[in-house]
What we know:
85 residues, 2 domains, 31% helix
Amino acid sequence: MPLYDYGCKSCGKEKEVQHPISEIGKIKVICDVCGQPMKKLLSAPTLLGFDDVGRSISKKDASTKSEKKSTKKSESKKIEKKDAA
């Protein structure tokens, strides 16, 4: 279930509330400090666990990527040594 940011117009307090997307605009979130209703704030989505193309990254994927990078580095070093000789 997603987290949404809410802010209080009266005191400026902000908090995160977890609820289904279907309840946006239907539920009333009350400020813990002053007891006034809070409004949903606009915030950028967080895409943790995804690469720059939008594919899911798991621990397995991350380890294979680091192995591929290390082999590419060692290959480039071999090529540089051959060029120097």
